[in-house]
Amino acid sequence: MSNLPESFTGDWITPDHPRYSEAIARWAINAERRAKVVAFVKSAQDVATVLKYGKQYKLPVAIRGGGHSTSGASSVEDGVVIDLSRYLSSVRVDPVEKLAYIGGGAIWETVDKAAIQHGLATVGGTVNHTGVGGLLLGGGYGFLTGKHGLTIDNLVQATVVTAGGEILAANSTENADLFWGIRGAGCNFGVVTEFVLRLHPQRRTVFAGILAYPPPLIPNAAATAAKFWDAGLDENEAITYALTMDPAGSGHPLALLFIFWNGSEEEGRSHFKPLFDLGPVLDTCKEIPFEEVNSVQNIHLKHGRNYYMKGIFATGLQVDVAQNLMSLLPELSTKRGINFNVIYEFMPTKKVLSVPNSATALIRAFRANVLLLATWDDKDPSKLDAVRSAAIELRRIVIQGERTIPESLNVGYGNYYSEEVTSASAGSGADSEALFGENYRKLQKLKKKYDPDLVFFKWNPITPEA
Fold first, then answer.
1. Tell me: the pLDDT tens digits for 26-55?
2. pTM to 2 decimals?
3. Whole domain around residue 287: which residue ranges?
């Protein structure tokens, strides 16, 4: 079963290979799975060959771009991984047309650094070792969302290898239905080997950094951050508000605010003056090169730990539930050994909502993404059950504070889904139906056309139309 297909030109890694452990390693170690084969592809034709191989031997398939999924979507037990990260990870910038040609296995760091050399940028991930493909296909929020919308709003074209092995260009005129579907519905329709993204003029430095507030200041920090959101964010700003445990080990929670201003330090300090006036105990904010802004949070999100995510939507910062969250975080940390972060991501919505829901697969609404992010170092696989249980408790608190979005529809941002999907569970579609709302029926038709046999099921799978 590990026979190398004759036409395959990449690297064919099986469990007996000396670099097998490296080949299945992921950002989150709890997302690693023991594949029968890891195929490091060199071309779209290689991808088609591996898909044919998987079908021939009835092997489940996973796609690895940046390897950042916490659900195991980029890994597969006893199956075949199509890995784009080794040979399809480069970026070519056309500064005249303001376009970036991006390999399906590239990470955002490569894009940011290549584009800014020409004074250009696009909407990329706020953690720059995230893969381009995973973030983009699920929507894509970033610090430039206020000016340029979602990452999918900047997609000009993609090269897609479908379940049947066809290699298709998808854009507004060629295979337009597929182009519509991949903008928000993840990897449900194929493997993207190249993205073409629109670039925009970008100043070379921006103002950004972290502010920290101890327990006595947390209510005021929350209320002040909430005022920025309620007033309507400027297109040049973004705020991330996180409740977490003090990394210094004091045993107390902290409020951490990551602030971004697409301008000078003088402008940024003036704009965010109410937050500085509260007297944070930590202020790392300064003017930095643009290509560094998406790396500031990397130190807290290193490779090789356990990670779990759960997404929620909220229409505001929920100042009134902060105390309940603060009370629970120390208990989770001390009694269960889990470091939980409750993160509210505030990006300007005007540009995002200027695109109608009918234009892409992604559903848009006036709301912020809330991320429950757990990290832990215990390698006991049973620990995940305790993490899920704790996430449910925290989610309940956030959900109770949300008075606009019905709980039945509050599935959260699709890229923050952490439950593993197996071939046995892929056909239910309940969460996907809530996620894609009014677009789900159209997506079912597309699934029937491009992937009727559910070859691609590892991320918010869509059930093909009957």
1. 999 999 999 999 999 999 999 999 999 999
2. 0.96
3. 205-416
